[in-house]
């Protein structure tokens, strides 16, 4: 295998420079080994999964606002595990919706958006490499990811439907078919995540090898653009955390299908072991889903503020320390699962320590924007939204880190609000910003700014209308994963908030429409993009839009750090990484 | 491509330079190590928690099984050495490379056969995934995962053999052989841990 890779890369690269052999349709669009094509494959697939996950969320919100009401239009078409004969969502089906919404959004949307799309697209281009180190495994990674999506979503069609024990699949609920009632769905969930893990590992191996070994001359580690640094740290987290989930999923699969007793207390197994294994993966996973977004936001903020990033090295060290600390805090997900008080204090402390590098990053973002000549482009709006939403989500995270507070709010909507502030307001807003920002490079055309701003305004407003009131619902005592809030006396008075949240959520779902129209219209009809529309300094903007096969005609040489904007002593307000600094110029990072 | 950049193009032309294929394989093996770390940590927690509930099946404890497993273990360990000596010979095209590689495959096959016989023996005695309690759960899943890795390793070795017979390995190009070797040594090391915790302790 390894040799075929060598031959393929060699053949393709040389082909791109000397003569251009026409690739077959299959090699060009289906099994492509070009990192840019693979990134676009990820992009379109992930956008589809985003719509699927979003529709599942709409189902969840409909049920919470109008429990027992038939689902409009499609209610009677839905399978019987999901709805009653009248077309209303039943409690078991509701659990399936919640589980699959979260599973899809984590494993099929946020991770592949950040790592599959932008990891693939940006790493070789920003470090000045012709492609990934192992193009074959890169293509394999995409198709494994695709397969995992099919396997996970196919549980819609099996008897009893979607797995229904939550995306965390806590044992013993998940480990016994007689408890969860979804033998087939839960088994497919295990298989899907195992395949998804293989895809992640293939990708991570590639990214780490590429960043370490294939940087252009002069591209020292401390000259890497921050998205590359963030993706590099993320890849290390993936490499070390995901296999543990694979091991746990395999054990759960055996419990469900072969009668082993890893997670069943009746036979000397330990239900809590599942939680430890799951969260040992699960907490690094949280940073897997936010670090690349931080890198992307840093890039967009610096470019649109026309200033060097504030504290470049501090940003890098903060990324590294968040990555390291991420491995020793998993217990904070388990304060309510029964835990030695000293252990819980330890986890509480290590969790709060993460606030330090997070705060360093936040203040550095503010320092970057401070006094800049800000260009309020659509990507900039999303990046600023990322920072502010991340602050809200990060601060509510400190509530959860404190054990005594967490005991009261852990199983409530407060934590639902928290995770959505970080994952939607944080990661997904950064993804939207990144799509607007790198779209010209990917497709050679510009997206429409006005419609982009409309999308931003609608998404930002309805995002906050949807998720901010969830804090109040949680403090009112509304539990997570209940299908019928007014069933409980203490929640009846807050049902109007639930209706408000749901209506906002529907509007949030609809706000995607201007984005989709803008996206697909611009691919074909948008104005042609120049090489460097944002006047940015990193290497991907020194090649044509979209870049040709092999990326760079000649290997670029890098002379200084990535964020040289408004350099004193220069006429131009930006200095690309492949141009040496003029004599008088005083640059920020050598 | 300029000479100062490390691309796959130059691999592994000069011995002093970085070898991307080897680097990638080590990275991948770190991930594999975490897979087994997860399984082994789970095993330790379960065993520690089970106390008296940890029942080793008689069929595993008897002397005959132990002797067979020890022989299989020695086969696997020595196969790492035979592969190491085979690699150098295959790359330099000196005598004995093919023979040593064949011997490695044979030793790996002996290990797998022994494991298959042991599983079927246990099955006949009434110990299986669902009947041997928590000890059986751990035993079958751990040895199953490892056996699968050995099986993949043997497939890689057979592929290497075919490539070697086709004259595909040169002093400049032998990434596949090198990766197979690293993988095989890794699988070997994992077995040393598994043998210790499953059979000896």
In words, what does this structure look like?
The complex is a heterodimer of chains A (about 600) and B (about 200). Chain A is mostly helical. Chain A has 3 domains: about 260 residues, Cytochrome C Oxidase, Chain A (Up-down Bundle), CATH 1.20.210; about 220 residues, Cytochrome c oxidase-like, subunit I domain (Cytochrome C Oxidase, Chain A), CATH 1.20.210; about 60 residues, no CATH class. Helices cover about 65% and strands about 0% of the residues of chain A. By secondary structure, chain B is mainly α. Chain B has one domain: Up-down Bundle (Four Helix Bundle (Hemerythrin (Met), subunit A)). Chain B is built from 6 helices and no strands. Chain B starts with 19 loop residues before the first helix and ends with a helix.
Q: Features of this protein?
A:
heterodimer; A: 590 residues; mainly alpha; Cytochrome C Oxidase, Chain A; 3 domains; 19 helices; disordered N terminus; B: 201 residues; Four Helix Bundle (Hemerythrin (Met), subunit A); 76% helix
Short recap of the structure:
The complex is a heterodimer of chains A (590) and B (201). With 590 residues, chain A is mostly helical.
Q: How many DSSP H or I helices of chain A?
A: 19
Q: Examine the secondary-structure arrangement and name the CATH architecture of the largest domain in chain A.
A: Up-down Bundle
> In CATH, what is the class of the largest domain in chain A?
Mainly Alpha
Order of helices and strands of chain A: HHHHHHHHHHHHHHHHHHH
Radius of gyration of chain B: 20 Å
Name the average pLDDT of chain A. Answer: 93
**Helical content class of chain B:** over 70%
Helix-and-strand structural type of chain B? mainly alpha
**Share of helix among residues of chain A?**
55-70%
Count of folded domains of chain B: 1
Largest sheet of chain A: none
- The second-level CATH architecture of chain B is Up-down Bundle
- Low-pLDDT runs of chain B: 1-17
CATH homologous superfamily annotation of chain B: Cytochrome c oxidase, subunit III, four-helix bundle
């Amino acid at each position: 295998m390894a040799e075929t890779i060598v031959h393929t890369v060699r053949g393709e690269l040389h082909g791109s420079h000397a003569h251009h052999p026409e690739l077959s349709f299959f090699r060009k669009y289906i099994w492509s080994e070009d990192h840019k094509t693979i990134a676009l494959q990820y992009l379109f697939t992930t956008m589809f999964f985003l719509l699927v996950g979003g529709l599942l969320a709409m189902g969840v919100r409909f049920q919470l606002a109008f429990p027992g009401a038939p689902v409009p239009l499609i209610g009677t078409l839905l399978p019987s595990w999901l709805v009653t004969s009248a077309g209303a969502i039943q409690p078991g089906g509701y659990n399936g919706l919640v589980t699959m919404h979260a599973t899809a959004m984590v494993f099929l949307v946020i991770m592949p958006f950040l790592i599959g799309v932008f990891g693939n697209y940006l790493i070789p281009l920003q470090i000045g490499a012709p492609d990934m180190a192992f193009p074959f495994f890169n293509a394999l990674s995409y198709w494994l990811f695709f397969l995992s999506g099919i396997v996970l979503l196919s549980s819609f069609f099996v008897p009893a439907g979607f797995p229904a024990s939550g995306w965390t699949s806590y044992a013993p609920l998940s480990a016994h078919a007689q408890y969860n009632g979804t033998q087939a769905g839960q088994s497919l969930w295990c298989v899907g995540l195992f395949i998804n893990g293989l895809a992640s590992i293939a990708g991570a191996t590639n990214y780490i090898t590429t960043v370490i070994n294939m940087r252009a001359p002069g591209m020292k580690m401390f000259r890497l653009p921050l998205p590359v640094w963030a993706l590099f740290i993320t890849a290390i987290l993936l490499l070390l955390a995901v296999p543990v989930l694979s091991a746990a999923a395999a054990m759960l699969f055996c419990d469900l299908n072969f009668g082993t007793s890893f997670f069943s207390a009746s036979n000397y197994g330990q239900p809590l072991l599942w939680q430890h294994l799951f969260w040992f993966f699960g907490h690094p996973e949280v940073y897997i889903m936010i670090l690349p977004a931080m890198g992307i936001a840093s890039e967009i903020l610096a470019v649109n503020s026309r200033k060097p990033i504030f504290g470049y090295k501090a940003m890098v060290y903060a990324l590294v320390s968040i990555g390291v600390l991420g491995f020793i805090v998993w217990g904070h997900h388990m304060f309510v699962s029964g835990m030695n008080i000293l252990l819980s204090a330890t986890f509480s402390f290590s969790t709060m320590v993460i606030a330090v590098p997070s705060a360093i990053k936040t203040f550095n973002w503010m320092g970057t924007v401070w006094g800049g000549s800000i260009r309020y482009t659509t990507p900039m709006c999303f990046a600023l939204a990322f920072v502010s939403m991340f602050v809200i989500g990060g601060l509510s995270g400190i509530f959860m880190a404190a054990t005594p507070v967490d005991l009261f709010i852990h199983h409530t909507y407060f934590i639902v609000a928290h995770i959505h502030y970080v994952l939607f307001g944080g990661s997904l807003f950064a993804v939207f910003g990144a799509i607007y920002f790198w779209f010209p490079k990917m497709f050679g055309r510009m997206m429409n700014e006005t419609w982009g701003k409309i999308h931003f305004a609608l998404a930002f407003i309805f995002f906050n209308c949807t998720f901010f009131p969830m804090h109040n619902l949680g403090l009112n005592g509304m539990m997570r994963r209940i299908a019928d809030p007014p069933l409980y006396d203490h929640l009846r008075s807050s049902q109007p908030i639930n209706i408000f949240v749901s209506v906002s959520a529907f509007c949030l779902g609809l706000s995607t429409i201007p984005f989709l129209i803008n996206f697909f219209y611009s691919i074909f009809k948008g104005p042609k993009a120049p090489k460097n529309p944002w006047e940015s300094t990193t290497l991907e903007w020194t090649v044509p839009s979209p870049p040709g096969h092999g990326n760079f005609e000649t290997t670029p040489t890098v002379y200084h750090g990535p964020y040289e904007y408004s350099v004193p002593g220069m006429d131009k307000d930006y200095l690309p990484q492949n141009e040496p600094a003029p004599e008088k110029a005083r640059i920020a990072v050598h | 491509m300029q000479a100062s950049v490390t691309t796959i193009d130059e691999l592994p032309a000069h011995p002093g330079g970085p070898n991307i294929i080897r680097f990638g394989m080590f990275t991948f093996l770190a991930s594999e190590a975490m897979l087994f770390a997860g399984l082994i940590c789970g095993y330790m927690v379960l065993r520690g928690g089970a106390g008296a509930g940890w029942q080793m099946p008689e069929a595993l404890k008897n002397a005959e099984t132990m002797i067979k497993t020890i022989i299989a273990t020695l086969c696997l360990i020595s196969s790492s050495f035979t592969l190491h000596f085979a690699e150098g010979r295959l790359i330099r095209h000196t005598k004995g490379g093919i023979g040593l590689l064949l011997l490695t495959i044979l030793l790996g096959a002996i290990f797998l056969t022994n494991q298959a016989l042991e599983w079927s023996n246990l099955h006949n005695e009434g110990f299986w995934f669902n009947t041997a309690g928590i000890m059986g759960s751990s035993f079958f899943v751990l040895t199953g995962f490892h056996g699968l890795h050995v099986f993949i390793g043997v497939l890689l070795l057979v592929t290497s053999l075919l490539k070697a017979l086709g004259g595909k390995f040169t002093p400049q190009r032998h990434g596949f052989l090198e990766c197979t070797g690293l993988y095989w040594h890794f699988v070997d090391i994992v077995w040393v841990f598994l043998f210790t915790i499953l059979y000896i302790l």
